[in-house]
Amino acid sequence: MSKLSGKVAVVTGASQGIGAGIAKSLAAEGASVVVNYLKNKDSADSVVESIVASGGNAIAFGADVSEPEGAEGLIDAAIKSFGHLDILVNNSGVYEFAPLEAITLQSYDRVFKTNVLGVVLTTQAGAKQMTNGGSIINVGSNITRMLMPTSAIYAGSKAAVDAITRVLSKELGPKKIRVNCVMPGPVDTETSRAMGGGNSEQMKMIIGMTPLGRIGQPEDIASVVTFLASEDAAWVTGALLLNSGGL
Q1: 3-state DSSP call for residue 202?
Q2: Could you confirm whether the keyword Oxidoreductase appears in this record (predicted)?
Q3: 68 neighbors 86 (Cβ within 8 angstroms)
Q4: DSSP secondary structure of 157-178
Q5: Core-most of 39, 83, 142, 161, by most CB within 10 Å?
């Protein structure tokens, strides 16, 4: 039997990149998956089609998880479609880099609203439905270990996710809800390539700094998330798991 057979999962920001990889990995292990998207419905539908073609079960649902009605609507969609909720992956996020003097109120609001408030709102809505326990996995970043110049706002938002993870693991533990955080290093995604991640010199520098000698792929993150969602990680909560090839 697959590790997640009979389980229901919600993955935020799952229309592409890491989120899409996570959704496919959870479905491959038997979970029914709600593929959340904000704007890119076509890509989310494509993820669902790929899951269904492989024998899995999934739906796409558009929602802005940084708004209360969006977060609640997303969780409600999981309950209406599949009857319960066992796994929540808070993957939605934005990143922005700027020196101190270039930081604006708008950039702060944009990053923190999605990366921090979105996690809180979706977890609020999801935890209420995990009446038989469950697993919540937050997608953080190794930026909180590297603390690079120009990353103050992004690193600050992900440091908040680290702290929220550890606090809620204690708060939700008595309800048999595990809360963990995966901290990816640089991953080859559509977004990272659009922001210059495909630049050969920059890529050579990142790879040169990485002990395992390569940039990450969505599947590298998805496999760890799937482990944390499963009973293989039944004794794991409050963990901040660095998944960055050693970077």
Answers
A1: helix
A2: yes
A3: no
A4: HHHHHHHHHHHHHHHHGGGTEE
A5: 161
Q: Is 154 a catalytic residue?
A: yes
Domain ranges for the chain: 8-190+219-239
d(CA 206, CA 240): 22
Look at residues 70, 154, 188 and name the one whose alpha carbon lies nearest to residue 162.
Answer: 154
User: Mean pLDDT, the chain, as a whole number?
Assistant: 95
> The domain 8-190+219-239: what is its CATH number?
3.40.50.720
Residue among 37, 95, 108, 154 flagged as catalytic: 154
Whole-prediction pTM value?
Answer: 0.95
Q: What is the pLDDT of residue 79?
A: 98
